[in-house]
UniProtKB/TrEMBL annotation, chain A:
<keyword id="KW-0408">Iron</keyword>
<keyword id="KW-0472">Membrane</keyword>
<keyword id="KW-0349">Heme</keyword>
<dbReference type="InterPro" id="IPR000701">
    <property type="entry name" value="SuccDH_FuR_B_TM-su"/>
</dbReference>
<feature type="transmembrane region" description="Helical">
    <location>
        <begin position="131"/>
        <end position="151"/>
    </location>
</feature>
<dbReference type="InterPro" id="IPR034804">
    <property type="entry name" value="SQR/QFR_C/D"/>
</dbReference>
<dbReference type="GO" id="GO:0046872">
    <property type="term" value="F:metal ion binding"/>
</dbReference>
<dbReference type="Pfam" id="PF01127">
    <property type="entry name" value="Sdh_cyt"/>
</dbReference>
<feature type="transmembrane region" description="Helical">
    <location>
        <begin position="49"/>
        <end position="72"/>
    </location>
</feature>
From TrEMBL, chain B:
<keyword id="KW-0408">Iron</keyword>
<keyword id="KW-1133">Transmembrane helix</keyword>
<dbReference type="GO" id="GO:0046872">
    <property type="term" value="F:metal ion binding"/>
</dbReference>
<dbReference type="InterPro" id="IPR034804">
    <property type="entry name" value="SQR/QFR_C/D"/>
</dbReference>
<protein>
    <submittedName>
        <fullName>Succinate dehydrogenase, cytochrome b556 subunit</fullName>
    </submittedName>
</protein>
<feature type="transmembrane region" description="Helical">
    <location>
        <begin position="96"/>
        <end position="116"/>
    </location>
</feature>
<feature type="transmembrane region" description="Helical">
    <location>
        <begin position="21"/>
        <end position="44"/>
    </location>
</feature>
<dbReference type="InterPro" id="IPR039023">
    <property type="entry name" value="SdhC_prok"/>
</dbReference>
<dbReference type="GO" id="GO:0009055">
    <property type="term" value="F:electron transfer activity"/>
</dbReference>
Length: 156, 126
C-alpha cells in the first residue's frame, strides 16, 4: 500500500491571482453574527462524542447479549418465559439489560436524527419525522424500563 | 483526478453507507424487540408464542443476518473511533477497513452453526 490517501495535487497553474481573488470562505465552525442563537451551543459536539463513547460500551453489552441469546447453550432454542425469568432473577442482568436498553436506544435515535437531517429536505417533513422518532424512542425506553422493573416470574 | 483524493465510490464511502444501513436496521429491530419482550408482562403463553416465531427457519436465518449487521456496525464503529482519535487512524483507514472485513468474516463463519443450529437440527434431524 502506498500513501494513496494523501492528496497528490501539485498543479503549478493557479486559478486565482490578483485579478481573480479566491472567494473568502469562513472556517466552517466559526460563529458569526448570522449564526442563529439556537446553534450557539455545543450540542452537536456532545452528540458526536456520545456516539463514540456509547459505541464502545455497546460493543460489550450488545455482543455479549447476542452471545448469550443466540450462540451459547443451544442458540435460540432455549429462549422462553422460563429462561427470561431465570435471567432477570439476577440484578446483574437486570442492570445489564437496562443500560443496554438506554444506551442502544439513545445511540440509535441520535443516529437516526442525523439520517433524517441528511435526507428529509422539506422543513415540515424533517420536523414531523423527528417528532415521530422522538415519540417512538421515549415510548420504547419507558416501556422497556417498566418491563425490567415490574417483571413478575409468578404472573400466572 | 488523483485516485487518492476521490472519496466517492471508494472504500470510505461504501463503509459509510454500510454503517448507516446497518445502524438503521438494528434500530428498527430493537424497537420491535422491546415490544415483543414486553409480552412477558402479559402472560408466559403470549411471550412463548412470539418467541416461537424466532425459532422458525426463515426468522432464524434473519437472526443470522442481524448478527452480520451488528458485527459489521460494531467493528466498523470501532474503526471510525480509531480514525477519529488515533493519530495514525486516517492514514490507515483502508487497512483498518479490510481488517474489519476479515475479522467480520471469521466471526460470521464461527457463528454459522451456533446461530442456525436450531433450524439445522429441526430440518436435518439431531
Ligand atoms: C435475535 C437476536 C436476539 C435475541 C434472541 C434476544 C433475546 C432477548 C431476550 C430473551 C431478552 C429477555 C431478557 C434477557 O434474557 O436478558 C432480551 C432483552 C433485551 N434485548 Fe435482546 N435479543 C436479541 C438481540 C438484541 C439486540 C441486537 C439488542 C440491541 C440492539 C437487544 C437488546 C435487548 C434489550 C435492550 C433488552 C431488554 C428489553 C426490555 O427492557 O424489556 N437484543 N433479548
Ligand atoms: C455494537 C456497538 C456499536 C458501535 C461501536 C457503534 C458505533 C457507532 C459510531 C462510532 C457511530 C458514528 C458514526 C459517524 O459519526 O460517522 C454510529 C452511528 C450510528 N449507529 Fe452505532 N454503534 C454500535 C451499536 C449500534 C446500535 C445497537 C444501533 C441501533 C440501535 C446503532 C445505530 C446507529 C445509527 C442509526 C447510526 C447513525 C449512522 C449514520 O449517521 O450514518 N449503533 N455507531
Amino acid at each position: 500500500m502506498s500513501a494513496e490517501t494523501t492528496p497528490a495535487v501539485n498543479d503549478s497553474v493557479s486559478l486565482y491571482d490578483v485579478d481573480n481573488p479566491a472567494p473568502v470562505i469562513e472556517p466552517p465552525r466559526k460563529r458569526t453574527k448570522k449564526t442563529p442563537k439556537t446553534t450557539r451551543t455545543n450540542f452537536e459536539m456532545y452528540g458526536w462524542l456520545f456516539m463514540r463513547l456509547s459505541g464502545i460500551v455497546l460493543v460489550v453489552l450488545v455482543l455479549g447479549h447476542l452471545l448469550l441469546q443466540l450462540v451459547l447453550d443451544g442458540g435460540v432454542s432455549k429462549i422462553g418465559f422460563a429462561f427470561v425469568a431465570g435471567r432477570w432473577a439476577s440484578p446483574f442482568w437486570q442492570v445489564w439489560d437496562l443500560v443496554m436498553l438506554w444506551l442502544a436506544m439513545l445511540h440509535g435515535a441520535n443516529g437516526l436524527r442525523t439520517v433524517i437531517n441528511d435526507y428529509a429536505q422539506r422543513d415540515n417533513t424533517r420536523f414531523w419525522l423527528k417528532m415521530l422518532l422522538y415519540t417512538a424512542t421515549v415510548f420504547t425506553v419507558l416501556l422497556g424500563t417498566l418491563v425490567i422493573f415490574t417483571f413478575d416470574p409468578n404472573i400466572r | 483526478m488523483p485516485a487518492g483524493t476521490l472519496y466517492r465510490g471508494r472504500e470510505g464511502m461504501w463503509s459509510w453507507v454500510a454503517h448507516r444501513v446497518t445502524g438503521v436496521l438494528i434500530f428498527f429491530f430493537l424497537f420491535v424487540h422491546v415490544l415483543d419482550t414486553a409480552l412477558v408482562r402479559v402472560s408466559p403463553e403470549a411471550y412463548d408464542d412470539v418467541v416461537a416465531t424466532y425459532k422458525t427457519p426463515l426468522v432464524n436465518v434473519m437472526e443470522y443476518g442481524l448478527v452480520a449487521a451488528i458485527l459489521f456496525h460494531a467493528l466498523n464503529g470501532l474503526r471510525v473511533i480509531a480514525v477519529d482519535f488515533w493519530s495514525k487512524g486516517p492514514k490507515y483507514q483502508k487497512q483498518l477497513l479490510w481488517t474489519v472485513v476479515g475479522v467480520w468474516a471469521v466471526l460470521m463463519a464461527g457463528a454459522f452453526y451456533p446461530v442456525l443450529q436450531h433450524t439445522l437440527r429441526t430440518l436435518f434431524g439431531s
